[in-house]
Amino acid sequence: MKIGVLTSSRADYGIYLPLLNKIKKDNFFELEIIAFGTHLSRSHGYTLKDIEKDSYNCIHAISSLISNDIEESIASSYGLTVLKFADFWQIHKYDLVFCLGDRFEMSAAIQAGIPFGVKFAHLHGGETTLGAIDNIYRHQISLASTFHFTATDIFTEKVSDLIDSSKNVFTTGSLSLNDIKSFTPLDKQTFFEKFGIPEEEFILVTFHPETMSTQDNFQYAEEMKKALKKIAENRFIVITMPNADTQGSIYREAIEKLKEEAPDRILLIENFGKINYFSAMYYASLLLGNTSSGILEAASFGKYVVNVGDRQKGRAQSNNIINCEFEEKVIVSSVVKAIELNVYTGENIYFRLNAADNIIKIIKQFS
């Protein structure tokens, strides 16, 4: 069975890994990686090199992003991605193509495949993020897909309602948590020395723009910067940089200025990679920002998360999430609350046993 896997960013590639590792070892499958989006962006760490290190037999690299994050450039990148993939789908045929999440470039690649009858399998459909235009792209991808592997029963119901059918819609849990029970972080001293983290408590931070509130992002970025500067007085800050969203550069510039103002208290990371990122989550005091990994994964590490603003609004949450507004004092007080709560001992609603094995079993059954 010939399988294609669409990956457009460091984030989705990390989520795919448990599934990719199993498919790669299974002679039933012929696997090809289709890398595009920020994987080929020098300003986002050129993470194609990390994919190449994982020794796949076939990697297709498709460059289609315009290096600007204003609305016109995002729309132009979407159109260019459609054009590039129109050529790609004309030449390359698959029995099934995996796609994941809600990125605009992922949506563009899928939309280009519709006239060619490409059979897509969508991971993480049915979720809601009211503060991001990704919400629209996610539903577009679901509507174009044949198979659906969702993270919770709630999302299975939503996908079934969206496509007006429960056929081929399966609850498998979040794929990124597939190996969480056996995960072993890097040795603490090795990890801290590798990234230059001082021997003290640190907070893991990731902020992205609110793409449904573009007029507010300048203010939000400033509130973020002021809050992080205040928090850095008592906790070291490790920041993973924003992805290629509309107005992402606003947050990048604010973060870079923060680094200049507090160079000894801030560490900036363009791309951790999954093992390093999970190790960072394991050793962090808590997570702060508005990224999906805080919602999906942090509970499995016993971490509280301060989720800021509306980007993740509407997404189902475990009980480790502290929601707050984009306002300096509120962010700081929420972080203080999370520190006082210390370790989260509740469940992660996104976890299911053997997610990758169950997806493979389903695909083989219906192939």
TrEMBL record:
SUPFAM superfamilies found in the cross-reference section: UDP-Glycosyltransferase/glycogen phosphorylase
InterPro entries reported for this sequence: UDP-GlcNAc_Epase, UDP_GlcNAc_Epimerase_2_dom, WecB-like
Location of the UDP-N-acetylglucosamine 2-epimerase domain: 22-364
GO function terms (MF aspect): hydrolase activity, hydrolyzing O-glycosyl compounds
Biological processes annotated in GO: UDP-N-acetylglucosamine metabolic process
Gene3D superfamilies: Glycogen Phosphorylase B (3.40.50.2000)
Signal sequence annotation: none
The protein's name in its UniProt record: UDP-N-acetylglucosamine 2-epimerase
Annotated source species: Flavobacterium seoulense
